[in-house]
Amino acid sequence: MSAAIDLAVSTVIFALRPDAAGHLVLSIPLVRRTRDPFEGRWALPGGAADAAESLADTAARKLAETTGLSPAYLEQLYCFGEPDRSPSGRVVSVVYWALVRTDEAELAAEGENVAWFEADELPQLAFDHNLIVGYALWRLRTKLEYSRIAHAFLGPTFTLAELRQVHEIVLQKPLDPANFRRQIEASRAVVPTGQHVTGGRHRPPRLYRYDASVQLVDNGPLTSAGIR
Amino acid sequence: MSAAIDLAVSTVIFALRPDAAGHLVLSIPLVRRTRDPFEGRWALPGGAADAAESLADTAARKLAETTGLSPAYLEQLYCFGEPDRSPSGRVVSVVYWALVRTDEAELAAEGENVAWFEADELPQLAFDHNLIVGYALWRLRTKLEYSRIAHAFLGPTFTLAELRQVHEIVLQKPLDPANFRRQIEASRAVVPTGQHVTGGRHRPPRLYRYDASVQLVDNGPLTSAGIR
Fold this sequence. Notes:
The structure is a homodimer of 228-residue chains. Chain A has 228 residues and is an alpha+beta fold. The first copy, chain A, folds into two domains: 2-145, Alpha-Beta Complex (Nucleoside Triphosphate Pyrophosphohydrolase), CATH 3.90.79.10; 148-210, Winged helix-like DNA-binding domain superfamily/Winged helix DNA-binding domain (Arc Repressor Mutant, subunit A, Orthogonal Bundle). Helix content of chain A is 25%, strand content 27%. In chain A, the strands form two sheets. In chain A, strands 1, 2, 3, 4, 5, 6 and 7 form a seven-stranded mixed beta sheet that branches. A two-stranded antiparallel sheet of chain A has the order 8-9. In chain A, strand 1 and strand 2 (24-32) form a beta hairpin. Chains A, B: Residues 6-141 form the Nudix hydrolase domain. Chains A, B: This is ADP-ribose pyrophosphatase. Chains A, B: Pfam families: NUDIX, WHD_NrtR. Chains A, B: InterPro entries: NUDIX_hydrolase-like_dom_sf, NUDIX_hydrolase_dom, WH-like_DNA-bd_sf, WH_DNA-bd_sf, WHD_NrtR.
């Protein structure tokens, strides 16, 4: 029976990228399909699973091939397997989601068939990819609140204002700076580095880093699928 | 490439069952393999994916066929796809996990090739099934604390003592009754039914139910994979 099922691997990649007005927005890169089904529609980067490669490795390789990106965070999202999700035969897709930093996202390949879209304002995508992105958005927003993945959008050190901005953009709501500081400090997820932002300011903001001794998130049972 | 990959569906089923001394223990049913690879070893119930059926439906059907069980809770756990996990060729397994009530578990089929095991004291299983059960245990214990799935082990109504017992057995630690009551009441996850346990007691315990207006857990993007 299983011979009639194709296995694919796709990835939802999130980054905070500047829009035309220079404001950071939650964005995902998509690839335009050049063949049927759904020729011309935008779709998640991915492709057929490879018999010799782990699923996470296939996800990372397909990502690199189409977008040039190498994410700071890669986690399995869900396996999508409804019988009618592809008009050209049964395809089960193992979907990963990934976070990349803003500076990395700026280096991503773009072209006629690869482009970034605002995550909350997508066109009609190929297959069930709108459903998949919607679920990935829900997972990102949920996980941001109970775990500590926001730092994957940032560099290794950051100010509390930068961290709060990541939360504000992803959660799409303003956060009170004093409350945010209290919550973050109470969570003990970040620790001061002892350093400050360099530059000519009178009171330069303190730099923080995540506490690496705390397990960050559920990365699945296999470390190879975790933070790279 | 994907033609060389077999797709399977398996399920980790948890129930609280009485051991020989009559104490409830966290248990899972396993099926003895009757052919290679791993002939004679115990394994998770499951089988090949079916091209005409959703993955969750295959999981539920295989469960019913081997154990007779129809779980109160069924959720996708993870897709396991390491290249070397089966000695007879590449197999990707979409694994579900399920909870069944104690009274249902007592009706489950048992026989020479189907038996219940204590979840924390398993023999060496076929394939990577020890790894899979270990991950399912971790997910169950994590989810019990931040969401509200314990009721799937119970009937629709229960006393706080019964709910605490579920937590104690799954988490393998005693919980202070007064603290537990405060935490559960603060979470607003359960509401009093207004009824009490029937019987001849002077002060019969109050019965509670889960508040159905609160979304219970992340059941994945597809309602068909959720609570049945």
